[in-house]
Amino acid sequence: MQALTLERSKQLIQASTSLLDIAHTLGLSGGSRLYDHFVQLEAVTPGEFKRQGEGVEIAYGVHETPLGSLFVAVTPRGICRMGFVDTTNTEELLARLAKDWPRSTFQHSPETTRYAVERLFNRADEGAAALSLHVTGTNFQIAVWRALLTIPEGQLASYSHIAQALGTPKSSRAVGNAVGANPIALWIPCHRVIQQSGALGGYRWGLEKKQIVQAWELAKVNNESLSPMATP
């Protein structure tokens, strides 16, 4: 019922300027109930859905890295997209981004997006600010992506392990779909998820790329563990 109500509200929201009127049309007690439906199921507010990125400036660029060319896009709130260009092309990635942010403005600005890549391959200075990610998805997708962030570098987890961690042990297939929908390669580490059997499972940017990323990350962790301790 919530999902049906949400879909109907999406239709009404394009034709109405009043969220309160929409709530009443749907038989909800008020605007707060409409807000709850959107936040719980879409992880965005009704206002954010209606604006569809209007007024948001998105900078994008392509950067060469040891793992291949990376397309990166950022908003003032954080990284909103990162993907490997060698398995697709920049135009296609930009088209997908425009579909998700139809009313935003886009600017080719590699100097603005470079930080998102440099932090991956260079150790952050002590006290450096944490990176922010600006993504949208269903509540379940957001929960899965947050779970991925808890997997330590150089370690792996199965789809079923994540499902159990979320308290939904029978949702391994849904977890796999959410992992596959990850919009930010590397920073949301979907490459750390494998099948329970030990098989690689899927990867949005190809299994060969998944193997390369896993090997790079494991080598990075091992090198850091072998680094000499700083003397007092």
From TrEMBL:
Superkingdom of origin organism: Bacteria
Task: Provide the catalytic activity annotation.
Answer: a 4-O-methyl-thymidine in DNA + L-cysteinyl-[protein] = a thymidine in DNA + S-methyl-L-cysteinyl-[protein]; a 6-O-methyl-2'-deoxyguanosine in DNA + L-cysteinyl-[protein] = S-methyl-L-cysteinyl-[protein] + a 2'-deoxyguanosine in DNA
Q: Which residues form the signal peptide?
A: none
Q: Name one GO molecular function term.
A: methyltransferase activity
Family annotation (SUPFAM superfamilies): Methylated DNA-protein cysteine methyltransferase domain (SSF53155), Methylated DNA-protein cysteine methyltransferase, C-terminal domain (SSF46767)
- Gene Ontology BP, a term: methylation
Residue stretches making up the HTH araC/xylS-type domain: 1-52
Q: Which PROSITE patterns match?
A: HTH_ARAC_FAMILY_2, MGMT
Keyword Methyltransferase attached: yes
Keyword DNA repair attached:
yes
Q: Which UniProt keywords apply?
A: DNA damage, DNA repair, Methyltransferase, Transferase
Which Pfam families does this UniProt record tie to the protein?
Answer: DNA_binding_1 (PF01035)
Spell out the protein name for this chain: Methylated-DNA--protein-cysteine methyltransferase
**Could you tell me which species this protein originates from?**
Vreelandella olivaria
